[in-house]
Amino acid sequence: MHLMIPVPRWLPLVALLCAMSVSHAVVANDRPNFLVIVVDDQSPLDLKIYNPDSPLETPNIDRLAASGMVFDGAHHMGAWSGAVCTPSRHMIMTGRTVWHLPQRRPKNAKQRNNNQSVRYPDEKLAPKDLPEYTMAAIFNRAGYDTMRTCKRGNSYAAANEQFTVVHDATKRGGTEESGSAWHGKQVLEYLDQRDAASDEDPFLIYFGFSHPHDTRDGTPELLAKYGATNHTDRKSLPPANPKQPPLPPNHLEAHPFHHGHPNLRDEVSVSGVWDRRDERTIRNELGREFACSENIDIQIGKVLHRLEEMGELDNTYIVYTSDHGMAIGRHGLQGKQNLYEHTWRVPFIIQGPGIPQGKRAIGNLYLLDLLPTLVDLAKIDGPETLEGKSLQPVIRGDQEVLRDVLYGVYCGGTKPGMRSVKKGDWKLIKYDALDGKVHETQLFNLAANPLEYLPEHQRESELETDLAENPAYAEKRQELEALLLSEMQRLDDPYRLWDQPQVAETNP
Question: What span, in angstroms and rounded, lies between the C-alpha atoms of 265 and 284?
């Protein structure tokens, strides 16, 4: 089911986008520019373009959506680490699937017991020269100027180093210098330098942010707008405030079973939340998150305005996305280490020359499809290392989705962890964790139950719950179980779940 894009509150600095015709007849030059915006830890359900009930105000992002194309089925595929952003950002940079990335994992039982790890040993799955075929390296060879600003750490360092200009720092404070404005400043100064030098080379700018990842220290004025405080006293609750965002409809004070990652930092150690899921704590934290997200929107607006002043906007493709979603109280969870829609999905908008205005598509894309799409739009020959797919057939309207089946994994914490598969309106999630203490299966009809309500939510509708144990849907469960195993095999998932056929070389 597609949501209508709400009418945004226009800002003068983005009124420039109104000049483009409804048909978006602007055609890219032979070498268009690219502005790739990646935020850290943002659920699509925080944004009005995906959730009209959200109180978060992001007029610049809304305007990008209204003048571009929104994808309702964008996902990050998953993670083999509790630091979910690490594989996610690897996938963005390489266009490769989650098990085909450079990573660290134990090589044998002795190393596992000694907590030692080595580089992934199979060059067929992760080529040694892969950095030469990552985002900046590809565009450098094509004659592009490449620049990035983003947080430090939890990323693909060898790929990041390929950018010609790099200004990385983790900025999660509430001031101009310590927060999101710092990242915006790096892009603005880079554009000023290009303008002063009359640089006519096309550019690819990776515009990354450190927020709304915790610690969510917003600016004082935006914290006040959303009724939040930067709460630091673990012994007390933050003050209640009617301006704070409401609780998510699928909020719970505890998940019905253990998520399988003991002492997971995101679930027990986030300053201002810790292990609490009560209303005051979650609403305050949402207020902090929204303050950080609106600040990001402000910085995006400044960059769009500068591009228009330079005459570069009409020839620039702009992508807005996040490395993954986030729970913040939904389903009794706080972090990003789960496969519910609020976390597995990501926001994804693309706007630029020839992109239809105000159009939505399901897409069924992964973040690893971003790089093949950029390469396609730039008319660059992509390397053989790319495993993702270009979005061009969906953008053109030739097809609604890139793929019919989607696979998701969380393999941090105890192994094998979580797996998910989705086809059409149906989604399966399986949990195999804590050395066999957690064996759970969930089945959702997302058309009837898009927020994945559980029995603990006590919804009245028969379909607004987990249907895995309902005999009326046993055949559908069996179908998705088979699909999940097929995807695990196809994508070189090295593990198998408790109720799947075991093979000797799996479950390392």
Answer: 19
Same domain, 51 and 107: yes
273 and 213 in contact (C-beta within 8 Å)? no
> What percent of the chain lies above the pLDDT cut of 70?
90
**225 and 291 part of one domain:** yes
User: Whole-angstrom Cα distance, residue 196 to residue 310?
Assistant: 10
* Average pLDDT of the residues in 410-428: 97
User: Does 15 reside within a domain?
Assistant: no
Q: Which of 438, 401, 398, 404 lies closest to 421 in space, CA to CA?
A: 404
**Domain co-membership, 284 together with 395:** yes
Give the tens place of pLDDT for each residue, 465-490: 999 999 999 999 999 999 999 999 99
Predicted pLDDT of residue 303? 98
Beta strands 316-322 and 33-40: pairing type?
parallel
Give yes or no: residues 168 and 284 share one domain: yes
pLDDT for 28:
75
Domain boundary among 346, 372, 403: 403
Structural domains of the chain, count:
2
> How would residue 457 be classed by pLDDT, with cut points 50, 70 and 90?
very high
460 and 347 share one domain: no
Shared domain for 432 and 391, answered yes or no, is no
Assess whether 158 and 210 both reside in one domain: yes
pTM, two decimal places: 0.92
Confidence at 14, pLDDT banded by 50, 70, 90? very low
Residue 23, pLDDT above cutoff 90: no
Asked if residue 6 is part of any domain, the answer here is: no
Co-location of 399 and 409 in the same domain? no
> Two tokens at 236?
């007390």
- Residue pointed to by tokens 């390469």: 375
Q: 329 φ, ψ to 5°?
A: 95, -20
Q: Does 65 fall in a domain?
A: yes
CA distances from 129 to 72, 133, 207, 352 (A): 34, 8, 25, 32
What whole-number distance in Å separates Cα of residue 501 and Cα of residue 170?
A: 44
Q: List the CATH number of the domain containing 501.
A: 3.30.1120
Complete DSSP assignment for 191-239: HHHHHHTT--S-EEEEEEEEEESSS----HHHHHHTT------TTSPPP
Strand order across the 359-361 sheet: 165-168, 145-150, 203-212, 33-40, 316-322, 348-351, 69-71, 359-361
Is residue 346 within 8 Å of 324, Cβ to Cβ? yes
Phi-psi region of 379 (alpha: psi -120 to 50; beta: other; left: phi over 0): left
- CA gap 208, 319 in Å, rounded: 11
Q: Residue 487 is part of which domain span?
A: 405-508
